[in-house]
Amino acid sequence: MEPSQFRDGRNFLSLTPPLGSGPADTSEPDTDKKGSRLPPACSEASGRGYSGAQQPPASQTPRVTAPASTMTASDLKVTKVDFLKSQNSVQHHTDAYETTSLVVRRGQPFLLQLTLSRELRSTDKLALHFSIGERPMKPLGTLMSLNPRSTRDLSGWHITIAKSSGTECLLSVTSAADAPVGKYGLSVKTGSNTHKPENNTVYLLFNPWCEADIVFLSNEAERNEYVLNDTGYIYVGSAYDIHGRPWNFGQFEESILDACMYLLDKSKLKMSSRRDPVIVSRAMSALVNANDENGVLLGNWSGKYENGTSPMAWIGSVAILQQYYKTKKPVGFGQCWVFSGVLTTVMRCLGIPARSVSNFNSAHDTDENLRVDVYLNEKGEKLKWMSVDSIWNFHVWNDVWMKRRDLPSGFDGWQAIDSTPQEQSQGIFQCGPCPLKAIRDGDVYLPYDSKFVYAEVNADKVYWRVTEENGRNKYIKLNVESQSIGANISTKAVGQNRREDITRQYKFPEGSSEERASMQRAISFLQPSGLVPRAGFGAIRPMSVSLDDVDGRAMVQNEVVPKSGVELAITNEKPLYPGEPIEVVITVKSTAAGSWTVALAGSCQLQSYTGKVDVNLGYIKETVKLEGKSEVRVPLKIAPDAYMKALAAAEDEEHVHVTAIAEIEGTPEKLTKEAALSFEYPPIQVQMPETAKLNKDFTCAFIFKNKLNVPLDNCKLMVEGLGIFKMATFEEGDVQPGRIIKSEVICTPTRAGEKKIVAKLTSNQVKGISVEKAITITH
């Protein structure tokens, strides 16, 4: 069989020695020092590795040497090992990794070409030793001694002689489909001689192309997207204003694979646990944040980033992981989309299909009662000091694809994991993997962290108005929203530069009988957690509501449908540009006959995407009269002077948050409405050819004109093109209104195919303007 016939994990070679080589060698395979043999490999059905075995001291590690005096001219020696890197890497979809070592995927054949001191004879003993870890041992499955003439397959690994001609011997090696992933060392034993190649490292990864691997993904387009695509988008903004932020995952770039191997070693997982993507992905969700074990990224939501890089400034994972691997110290700073981007890189690099997922109106329910309380004052302004729970405009985590053989049947497929440090799980900041099916169905008892993820997409929002009476807080329950949390759950579409809505993979349609049944099922697994409203000063008991109204136990909240037919809507009349007035309209509308008097309060605040209020901008209070089916538009206008200073002072990207409260006189009805509006910015233009030749220089220009009526201070432009040029930063200084800046990069493509160039401009006033442009590189 010719090497080109080795296609994927479904083709296992089992070839007899070539003609003329004599009868097969029937000698026993190598054993360890005590004569014990490796136990049978884990069955495909179990998918789990060995555990609990103690590793021996280093002195017990088998080492084969022979004194020079015992060697004769007729002794068989290996003079060279050719790893056939270019051929193997194409077959294993690893040709893009920037490394001089061989990178292969488990459960799939790869070829090795041995050059021998003489022709191979039937009586010669030949064995390949693959080892992983500090103290490799056969019983642990961390030392494999492979004899091409043995019919035994005790380790789950397999080796055959594909071709033998003269002093050249072509071997086909197939690793076990559940072998531990990581860096293996190779040595070749011939009789009493041992040959160790100069670069003897072989990286072994998970294999989504192999049916026997539990990360197997059958769809080729999905494998190309979720394993091989090194660029993409992370979706940010608000539920009604979603935009994709280009992100370079860069899993094949220099040092990234070694950084991921370092993280595997740092995880201190047993080698047997490295077989299992469930355990590996959970460990990586912990190590991408620096809260435990000095992982990759320091989280920072303080707005102060002097000793590091603002989370808004990153354009990809490469610089972060390269810095971490070089210094072995946490990198500052990250927020949710940065954590997710880096975790996608790590997962794809290791061979686990992964995607970044954005959840809009994402709940952080600290006591798992599936309820988030929002406290407002009489102006409708959110009281930032009271809430323990929070609702983020968006939150970004990850999905990874794998079978869950540790769970009952039916929970294979996408699993949610999250490296943003929010809550501890089993004592450290990690989250998942949690089956999406468990989240959708309300099976929140299943591991890992399903209650927390379920609440992020399903919690009900309860509004309270807080007033002071006789020195104590008085709470009035205004409204319940059961359909706003967990909106427009988004990821990049397969093979296309657009957003895909995957909300239905996480939850049933809002308000449907299945959705309410799912919540009822989830609630049945939750424990009561005390009285609510849960304010920052939670010992104060509400005075205006009965004990039943503030029961903190998880329960299905019933959203009240207004009998009056009065509705609220919030819109912005024109795009929001920094330096121009904020013009918002609150519309009070009647959809039924009758006369209604409505007391309206509306507020405008500047807040971060995590819901943290930075400044109150203004409010209105009006009485609105409606006759029959009609509507009244109430404007709310904020002058630039009221917000520009705060906008420039904030280190994070700010949103304009508008809240409206309507009380209908003569009825108990109270309505609430919120909207998060995003600023818009002038674009960056990219000038370059549509195509370019491999290893031939071309010029790429980045042009930006400040079309705003305010100066942009401390401008910085960051650009990166994977496979084209390394990340570069241009300090542009202050850019006055109307000024044009232009920066150029000389590009030298090193990889063929469609490549993307990403640029980001940051300043004090504008935290991030992103752009990307594709170019096709040909031979």
What topology does this entry show?
Blueprint: E1 78-82, H1 85-91, E2 102-105, E3 109-116, E4 126-131, E5 143-146, E6 158-165, E7 168-174, E8 182-190, E9 193-195, E10 201-205, H2 220-228, E11 231-238, E12 241-248, H3 256-266, H4 277-287, E13 297-299, H5 318-327, E14 331-334, H6 336-350, E15 354-364, E16 371-376, E17 390-402, E18 413-417, E19 434-435, H7 436-441, H8 450-458, E20 460-469, E21 472-481, E22 487-492, E23 499-501, H9 503-506, H10 513-523, E24 566-572, E25 582-590, E26 595-608, E27 613-627, E28 631-638, H11 644-649, E29 654-664, E30 670-678, E31 684-687, E32 691-693, E33 698-705, E34 712-721, E35 725-735, E36 740-747, E37 753-762, E38 769-778
Helix pairs in contact: 3-5
Question: Can I get a quick summary?
Answer:
It is built from 11 helices and 38 strands. It is mainly beta and 779 residues long.
Describe this structure in words.
Its cofactor is Ca(2+). It is an enzyme of class 2 (transferase). It comes from Anser cygnoides. With 779 residues, the chain is mainly beta. The protein is built from 11 helices and 38 strands. The strands form 10 sheets. Strands 2, 4, 5, 8, 9 and 10 form a 6-stranded mixed β-sheet that branches. Strand 29 (654-664) and strand 30 (670-678) form a beta hairpin. Helix 3 packs across helix 5. The two termini are 30 Å apart. The model is unreliable at 1-71 and 529-555 (pLDDT under 50).
Average pLDDT:
86
Q: What is the first-to-last residue Cα distance? A: 30 Å
Q: Fraction of residues in helices? A: 10-25%
Please count the helical segments. 11
Share of β-strand residues: 35-45%
What would you call the structural class? mainly beta
Shape: elongated
Total strands: 38
Radius of gyration: 31 Å
Main sheet, how many strands, which sense, barrel?
A: 6 strands, mixed
Q: Poorly predicted ranges (pLDDT <50, ≥5 residues)?
A: 1-71, 529-555
